[in-house]
Amino acid sequence: MGQDAFMEPFGDTLGVFQCKIYLLLFDIVANCLLLRFKLSVSSYEIWKKGACSGLKVTVPSHTVHGVRGQALYLPVHYGFHTPASDIQIIWLFERPHTMPKYLLGSVNKSVVPDLEYQHKFTMMPPNASLLINPLQFPDEGNYIVKVNIQGNGTLSASQKIQVTVDDPITKPVVQIHPPSGAVEYVGNMTLTCHVEGGTRLAYQWLKNGRPVHTSSTYSFSPQNNTLHIAPVTKEDIGNYSCLVRNPVSEMESDIIMPIIYYGPYGLQVNSDKGLKVGEVFTVDLGEAILFDCSADSHPPNTYSWIRRTDNTTYIIKHGPRLEVASEKVAQKTMDYVCCAYNNITGRQDETHFTVIITSVGLEKLAQKGKSLSPLASITGISLFLIISMCLLFLWKKYQPYKVIKQKLEGRPETEYRKAQTFSGHEDALDDFGIYEFVAFPDASGVSRIPSRSVPVSDCVSGQDLHSTVYEVIQHIPAQQQDHPE
Ligand SMILES: *[C@@H]1O[C@H](CO)[C@@H](O)[C@H](O)[C@H]1NC(C)=O
Ligand SMILES: *[C@@H]1O[C@H](CO)[C@@H](O)[C@H](O)[C@H]1NC(C)=O
Ligand SMILES: *[C@@H]1O[C@H](CO)[C@@H](O)[C@H](O)[C@H]1NC(C)=O
Ligand SMILES: *[C@@H]1O[C@H](CO)[C@@H](O)[C@H](O)[C@H]1NC(C)=O
Ligand SMILES: *[C@@H]1O[C@H](CO)[C@@H](O)[C@H](O)[C@H]1NC(C)=O
Ligand SMILES: *[C@@H]1O[C@H](CO)[C@@H](O)[C@H](O)[C@H]1NC(C)=O
Ligand SMILES: *[C@@H]1O[C@H](CO)[C@@H](O)[C@H](O)[C@H]1NC(C)=O
Ligand SMILES: *[C@@H]1O[C@H](CO)[C@@H](O)[C@H](O)[C@H]1NC(C)=O
């Protein structure tokens, strides 16, 4: 009794019942084995009693990783269901291919250590957990804890814990060879990870934080502590680091960036102003234009500018920028070449382009073509509209009069009547025209319709035709005089 503190809620009736069934099956098998191998029947009987009587020993982890020189605690829990008088706890230590060693044991609260190890192992019964302090490499192995309960018979149970001992890892250092760098597609590169302290090291290489895998250009040493890149390419540029792990620690090296010489790639010429169409730049006369030549390369390219005139070419400047002042140029069209050279990779690239000088004014407009500014378009359209309006005005002013005059001479009366019926202010354009004064004498009594040009009034039919018809006179006094009254 008195061990309630260690009782755990596991030995319920169902559990015990199931256990007994399993044990019955197991018993049949075990008895066959016992007969076969003539094993000790008594030890088996003792174990069999413990199995179903509710004594249970548990450990949180069957493998515990310890750091050398530090204390290591091996936690153990146990519980049982029977009344007990004595509680015995025994710790044994075994290494592969050696005899198990007794470390210490206890009955109730009194501990009996092996005197050889008495300063190293500590237990506080009835707590079965073991403290190892300090942990050393020889302490690596299996630790077995056995709990015996003496009550109505003896119950027994045990557990095994595997303990490893390691030194923590010191920070890895990566060495790169060759340190001066390698030329793309020509050179190889080897990264080696060095670690001063630590046991059971597992190496991993990271590029930009992601693991590096074996590929056509990447290979590893058997321990993975060396990464070999053959050949190097521009894509291999990145942040490399070496990550080293062991059971008790993990350390990453500083980032290292291999020097890889490449290029030039993607050569192109740009300008601060001027219009670029393909390889042709157009620039206004009098303007200075600045060209910028750039290509991706390491180390930076050396640039040279070449001018081509007819058959001859000559270098005009070194450096990535070239200024062309168009007023100083005699020709209207000039051919240039920008040449980029990487003096480490020994490779070069060049691009040709043409500069066309345009003079300001109409030629400029023509040259720029579609690129007319919106303002210019608006001005142009406005001018066109104004001129069109003027022309239309002038045409209307002179042309229609003659036509009307001709028509008036042979026009029958009915036509006028008809015209009156649909004359109206249908359209403002109809009002645009020549008007005249007409007066009719009362002689014959026959109603005569005056010569009228464009319909104006819609109430003529109801009016006295003898009276003067109101008309708007547009200033053509000379022609009016000719008109008969
Ligand atoms: C252990 O304790 C129980 C009661 O707590 C007692 O009966 C028994 O004699 C003790 N055993 C030893 C070896 O002291
Ligand atoms: C055993 O003792 C350790 C401290 O030495 C304690 O942390 C642990 O909880 C104890 N176990 C039990 C079951 O009381
Ligand atoms: C002891 O065990 C026997 C059989 O295993 C049982 O008959 C007896 O009642 C038990 N005694 C106590 C005190 O539990
Ligand atoms: C690079 O490695 C390849 C294959 O491993 C080898 O053939 C070549 O000679 C190496 N180049 C240099 C410059 O070491
Ligand atoms: C590499 O590291 C530098 C800083 O050390 C950082 O600026 C750069 O963006 C990193 N490159 C990549 C590809 O992560
Ligand atoms: C080396 O790394 C690879 C993965 O990159 C891994 O599969 C292999 O087990 C490692 N070898 C050693 C000895 O750690
Ligand atoms: C270019 O050179 C060729 C001979 O190399 C010559 O026949 C030709 O006339 C030259 N053209 C000009 C425009 O100088
Ligand atoms: C390569 O060119 C750079 C300038 O971009 C110059 O500083 C360097 O000395 C040159 N190296 C060689 C080997 O010519």
UniProtKB/TrEMBL annotation:
Gene Ontology CC annotations of this record: centrosome; Golgi membrane; midbody; mitotic spindle; nucleoplasm
Keyword vocabulary terms for this entry: ADP-ribosylation, Cell cycle, Cell division, Cytoplasm, Cytoskeleton, Disulfide bond, Glycoprotein, Golgi apparatus, Immunoglobulin domain, Membrane, Mitosis, Repeat, Signal, Transmembrane, Transmembrane helix
Organism domain of life: Eukaryota
Main location: cytoplasm
Membrane topology classification: Single-pass type I membrane protein
Segments passing through the bilayer: 375-395
InterPro entries: HEPACAM_domain, Ig-like_dom, Ig-like_dom_sf, Ig-like_fold, Ig_sub, Ig_sub2
Range of residues in the leader sequence: none
GO BP, one annotated term: cell division
Residues annotated as domain Ig-like: 172-256, 258-354
Location relative to the cell: Cytoplasm, Cytoskeleton, Microtubule organizing center, Centrosome; Cytoplasm, Cytoskeleton, Spindle; Golgi apparatus membrane; Midbody
Reported function: Required during prometaphase for centrosome maturation. Following poly-ADP-ribosylation (PARsylation) by TNKS, translocates from the Golgi apparatus to mitotic centrosomes and plays a key role in the formation of robust microtubules for prompt movement of chromosomes: anchors AKAP9/CG-NAP, a scaffold protein of the gamma-tubulin ring complex and promotes centrosome maturation.
Name listed for the protein in its UniProt record: HEPACAM family member 2
The organism of origin for this protein: Gorilla gorilla gorilla
